[in-house]
Amino acid sequence: MSVELENGIFISEKAKAKIVELMGEAGIANDPSYFVRVGVVGGGCSGLSYKLDFDNEQKASDQVFEHNGLKIVTDLKSFLYLVNTTLDFSDGLNGKGFHFINPNASRTCGCGESFAV
Predict the structure, then answer these.
(1) What domains appear along the chain, each with residue ranges and CATH number?
(2) Is the pLDDT of residue 1 over 60?
(3) Alpha carbons 76 and 82: distance in angstroms, whole number
């Protein structure tokens, strides 16, 4: 028996904890209209860069996912690059911050903030 994962965007436990912390610091933790918006923009050393922010305005063409108790929204064009990507957070010595584990990326730059498909 095989289990197929639904295509989406996912959030690790570490990333969830940091997002909840940041939403609390921003004073929006108890406001259900806010969500995590992820996206892809042109630029960076490898051609495409990730975008991450809090938002409370959903557009008609947005793709909406819920994972690990958080709402994640992206525009349709970005989703084509982000399908089955996991947002993670590292607080280690080799780099602190959010990073994307993207199975669609054919290469990434050294800093991990840009990629190519």
Answers:
(1) 9-116 (2.60.300.12)
(2) no
(3) 10
- Cα pseudo-dihedral 45, 72, 117, 80, rounded to 10: -140
Q: How many CB atoms lie within 10 A of CB 112?
A: 17
> Do the Cβ atoms of 10 and 67 come closer than 8 Å?
yes
The model's pTM: 0.83
Both tokens of residue 38?
Answer: 């992820």
Q: Quick check: 66 and 7 in contact, CB under 8 A?
A: no
Rounded Cα gap, residues 78 and 87, in angstroms: 14
CB 87 within 8 A of CB 38: yes
d(CA 29, CA 70): 11
How far is Cα 45 from Cα 31, in angstroms, rounded to an integer? Answer: 36
21-77 confidence digits (pLDDT tens): 999 999 999 999 999 999 999 877 767 889 999 999 999 999 999 999 999 999 999
Place of tokens 């064009």: 77
Residue type for position 72: I
Distances 44 to 35, 51, 64, 115 between C-alpha atoms, Å: 25, 11, 26, 8
